[in-house]
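Example 3.2
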Amino acid sequence: MCVIDNINGRELKFVDTTLRDGEQTAGVVFANSEKIMIAEMLSDLGINQLEVGIPTMGGDEKDAIKQIVKKNLKSSIMAWNRAVVSDIEQSIDCGVDAVAISISVSDIHIQNKLKTSREWVIENMVKATEFAKKNGLYVSVNGEDASRADEDFLIEFIEAAKQAGADRFRFCDTVGVMDPFTIRNKIERIYNKTKFDIEMHTHNDFGMATANAIGGVLGGANYVGVTVNGLGERAGNAALEEVLMSLIHVLKCHSNIDTRRFKELSEYVSRASGRELPAWKAIVGSNMFRHESGIHADGALKDPKNYEAFDPSEVGLERQIVIGKHSGRAAVVNKFREYDIELDDEVASRVLDVVRSTSVKLKRSLFDKELVFIYKDVMRDMEKDSTEAI
């Protein structure tokens, strides 16, 4: 949970769909044991609700959902369904406490995918929602492709969902075509007309999933759908770690989610999904707190706040000063202090010259052992020069 101080003290809740939408990434398959581990890690983190799979798939998928339910996690456990009663019956059989009922709401989808009418969409959504509510389930009604839907129809759809007993509406930017400014205004209009809980579910096709999720929150949404590392179909979804840390540090939320577990969680999901965690990944990438550039490293050594938006320990990372082509003398002197070696100005300058030329030859920053060898070579050369001078 997060409470945003500067937006009427609203409570925001996170819905993680790594185990459903994340696993729908082309080529990604989680073993059942991995799904259970990820669910436990997310629950321990403090995520409100986990969307863990699609029961109507049967087989291993259904078995994994049942095993997750049996863990009695702190998080609410949600299953994804089409707006079909038989899908919801499969979810009930799994023992979940919540269901997502998904159906297309844009005319593009209604005409070209479903080949039906708006009336048919509302009728089937209402039927599925009423059935789920009669069976005591929490219901999120998902508007697939909501970002391209007619706004008046979207409001009609939400009002029908409310009347059927739904608990919230999931606004899906299914193909990631929104921008954060437009989506903020759209969500604000929808919320003001319906006064209904709205969840943001944003995709990253244009690299704006996190920004769009935040934009929706600013517009009035109080649920945010995310995945670990932004895993998801095509270019992925809004990343849990990016959205949450943005809410905390940019929008000044208070949170009881244990962000210190992010590194461990992100690395585990990366390995389980077979998708590399890039060094430059926002929030949890290994380069987040690695400084090489002379000006940046010197600034970070004087006060980390000069070049770090938050302390690395908040997400389970550590600060690193990297020595390479772009390093300055202050970074080199500081690095050798780690070895209990104090460099004077002349030695530091010579070492730095060799460091830079070696880094260019190797096309990378240098390892600690290489730095020690460089230091020994420099000292040997200086001693030789001194002897020859005599």
